[in-house]
User: Which sequence fits this backbone?
């Protein structure tokens, strides 16, 4: 998967000159140097690039770029830089953002998937310093990384719940899931990156080489460069997973047990811990998971009725293989013996690891739905107040409108590298809240009101939350979000994308 980045292609654009007759929306400068077949302005291309999973924002680009080599991406960025008024450029992984973060109104969207052609750019290697690792194209989806590495008996250690996201897209945010408490987010498990900066320079970077760029790009919301390769740490892949769900009717017990499970003192502890709420509109089985039999669903529904429509659930997984098959049940027993879930409300499955890791599917009707999601990180010291106000009151009051999974589970700060651009609360343990609403487009306002009510409550009560997959409208809010990281974030922008070309859909440097 050697990157083809020798100096080329000012001439390429001219050689493959095809004037697209409907290209009138393109800036004249681009038209004059038309990039031919790989730059398209037809409605089919631009309408895909003006939408995303959220269905909340629409920004139409002037054109969509379909590169088949890294050099073509370099040339596009350089072309923009050479103009007196550059056009903006957004890498689009699979457009699984919810608020237009991968869009570029009037600019050019780079469809990263086309870099792979029809192939899979994942190469597994070993060296004495790093052990096993995979060199993966930034456009690759995690499901392809999983399938390819499993062929070698290996796998990455840190995942997202849903695997049809791209490596470049999740590394630009963080990449979190139930393994993050143990291994850190995906951005903590990268050895090296190839990045094309906002000036069109191809740079390889790591903790020791061009480290400023490396840390800026990880969690950097696409602001400093386009990731075209990531070197990802691999471990021996486990073969099977003991997958357990526990139901709680008491928030303190639910969070105490989650914190016990993620604590380092828990030797032989789990490989994965997540938690969620169960309400009438956020039932135990949902698009993220169909774990329960109908009998168990009815059992949980009865408990839900007797608990004023609010229950909590811990999802915990321990991996095993042939070597540990004889001891895994005993280990699970030991791990769970002090947990305080509702008696009789423990549910178990035993599945191949690939089935567990690829458990989340999003269904067919997501294109017609809107997804006004809210993802937050909440400091541990404030979770009781958060539960009282947000879960027991605000969400319950909106119960007729909430719809979709509500995730709530903890991380250990020590597993995050503070040198990255990712922003997390100051405390050693913090929780992630994922309000993964789905609704018909007409109802978006109701959900935005709910989200705003939660944000306003946190603001008023001094709960120092941080948004994950952040979305702000004003510069002031971004400065507050980044806090002590803002100055260096801004400095890195000046250094690596001085003309502010990249990922305008995040609305950081182009906000008011
Ligand atoms: P896009 O949405 O296309 O892009 C996201 C941002 O990154 C944009 O600003 C874009 O310009 C930039 N970008 C894209 N590719 C590159 C690149 N190669 N180099 C530099 N910048 C780039 N997140 C989690 O952490 N954990 C989860 O479990 C999880 N589950 C999800 C489930 C679903 C159903 C959905 C819709 C999202 C989920 N997410 C999760 C959020 C996900 O991480 C983000 O949507 C993320 O943006 C990845 O999506 P994408 O690859 O399609 O990137």
Assistant:
């Amino acid at each position: 998967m050697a990157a083809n980045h020798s100096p080329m292609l000012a001439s390429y654009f001219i050689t493959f000159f095809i004037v697209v007759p409907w290209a009138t929306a393109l800036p004249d400068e681009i038209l004059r140097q038309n990039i031919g077949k790989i730059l398209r302005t037809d409605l089919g291309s631009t309408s895909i690039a003006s939408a995303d999973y959220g269905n909340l924002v629409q920004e139409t680009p002037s054109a969509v770029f379909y590169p088949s080599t890294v050099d073509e991406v370099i040339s596009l960025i350089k072309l923009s830089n050479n103009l007196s008024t550059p056009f903006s450029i957004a890498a689009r992984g699979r457009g699984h953002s919810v608020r237009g973060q991968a869009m570029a109104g009037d600019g050019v969207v780079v469809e990263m998937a086309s870099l792979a052609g029809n192939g899979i750019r994942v190469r597994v290697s070993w060296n004495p310093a790093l052990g096993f690792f995979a060199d993966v194209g930034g456009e690759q989806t995690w499901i392809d990384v999983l399938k390819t590495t499993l062929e070698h008996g290996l796998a990455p250690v840190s995942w997202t719940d849903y695997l049809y996201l791209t490596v470049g897209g999740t590394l630009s945010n963080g990449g979190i899931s139930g393994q993050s408490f143990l291994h850190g987010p995906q951005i903590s498990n990268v050895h090296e990156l190839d990045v094309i900066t906002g000036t069109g320079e191809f740079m390889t970077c790591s903790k020791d080489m061009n480290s400023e760029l490396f840390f800026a790009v990880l969690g950097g919301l696409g602001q400093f460069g386009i990731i075209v390769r990531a070197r990802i740490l691999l471990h021996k892949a486990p073969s099977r997973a003991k997958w357990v769900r526990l139901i709680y009717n008491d928030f303190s017990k639910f969070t105490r047990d989650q914190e016990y499970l993620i604590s380092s003192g828990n030797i032989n502890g789990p490989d994965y811990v997540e938690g969620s709420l169960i309400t009438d509109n956020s039932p135990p089985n949902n698009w993220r998971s169909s774990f329960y039999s109908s009998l168990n669903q009815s059992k949980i529904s009865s408990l839900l009725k007797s608990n004023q429509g609010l229950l909590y659930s811990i999802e915990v997984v321990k991996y095993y293989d042939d070597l540990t098959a004889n001891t895994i049940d005993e280990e699970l027993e030991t791990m769970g013996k002090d947990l305080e879930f509702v008696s009789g409300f423990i549910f178990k499955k035993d599945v191949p690891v690939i089935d567990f890791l690829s458990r989340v599917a999003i269904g067919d009707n997501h294109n017609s739905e809107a997804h006004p999601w809210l993802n937050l990180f909440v400091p541990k010291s404030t979770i009781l107040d958060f539960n009282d106000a947000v879960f027991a009151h605000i969400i319950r009051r909106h119960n007729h409108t909430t719809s979709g999974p509500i995730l709530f589970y903890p991380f250990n700060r020590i597993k995050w590298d503070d040198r990255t651009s990712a922003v997390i609360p100051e405390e050693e343990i913090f929780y992630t809240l994922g309000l993964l609403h789905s609704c018909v487009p007409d109802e978006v306002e109701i959900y935005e009101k709910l989200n705003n009510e939660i944000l306003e409550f946190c603001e008023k009560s001094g709960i120092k939350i941080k948004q994950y997959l952040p979305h702000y409208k004003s510069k002031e809010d971004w400065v507050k979000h980044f806090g002590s990281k803002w100055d260096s974030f801004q400095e890195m922008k000046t250094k690596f994308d001085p003309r502010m070309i990249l990922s305008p859909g995040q609305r950081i440097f182009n906000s008011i």
Observations:
- The pocket of flavin-adenine dinucleotide is lined by residues 53, 90-97, 101-102, 112, 138, 160-162, 165-166, 168-170, 172-177, 221-222, 226-227, 362, 469, 503, 505-506 (CB under 6 Å).
- DSSP finds 16 helices and 18 strands in the chain.
